[in-house]
Specification:
By secondary structure, the chain is of the alpha+beta class. It is about 30% helix and about 30% strand. Strands 1, 2, 3, 4, 5, 6 and 7 form a seven-stranded antiparallel β-sheet that branches.
Length: about 190
């Protein structure tokens, strides 16, 4: 029987499933579709930059190695995120942003829900319209497990990936933090 990763590999730039729109630039190393989610490992060259753009689908970006600066939003609500190894950033569909990759480039794992899957997450309480850059370490731990399953998986990897992706969206829904708000204010609010 073929390894899960062998079944997941696709050629760079190829999107074989109409449920997903093209989500990223860079070299696509692997791609898999699991239960309404597309997972793509990408590699971006050192110093590469992408000007202001938006994607038709929501996405979670997990930085595996290297780093990037992501500038999100319009002039009135512009935010910058310095994304190093282990950072997680969720962007809703149609959120304008730009990317500048660091001197080491970056390898990332992109998790993209299909429109139908995002609708089911919304019905379950996930707030899809907000950018989320959690301070909580749990999202990075979950995406790390997802990535390990994707790279080293077996016949039941798709079940483990689906479970962890659903946990990820659940945790992200509860970790929305305003980057201009002091960290202690969110903790005080949660305590109250």
């Amino acid at each position: 029987m073929r390894n899960f990763i062998e079944e997941a590999y696709v050629r760079p730039g190829v999107n074989e499933n109409a449920d997903f729109h093209e989500i990223t630039s860079g070299d696509q190393l692997i791609s898999a579709q699991v239960a309404g989610f597309q997972l793509i490992e990408t590699r971006h060259l050192p110093g590469a930059a992408l000007g202001r753009h938006a994607h038709a689908d929501a996405s979670v970006n997990f930085v595996i190695s290297g780093g990037l600066r992501e500038t999100v939003g319009n002039f009135a609500r512009r935010r910058e995120y310095m994304c190093g190894p282990g950072s997680v950033l969720y962007k809703p569909a149609a959120e304008y942003h730009s990317n500048s990759y660091g001197p080491k480039g970056a390898r990332c794992l992109i998790i993209q829900p299909s429109a139908a899957r995002l609708q089911s997450l919304t019905e379950g309480g996930f707030r899809v319209g907000e950018t989320v850059y959690p301070e909580d370490p749990r999202p990075a731990q979950l995406v790390g497990r997802i990535y390990a399953e994707l790279r080293n998986g077996d016949n039941v990897s798709s079940l483990a990936i689906e479970a962890d992706v659903l946990r990820l969206f659940s945790v992200l829904s509860g970790t929305t933090v305003n980057p201009k708000r002091p960290w202690w204010l969110s903790h005080a609010r949660d305590f109250l």
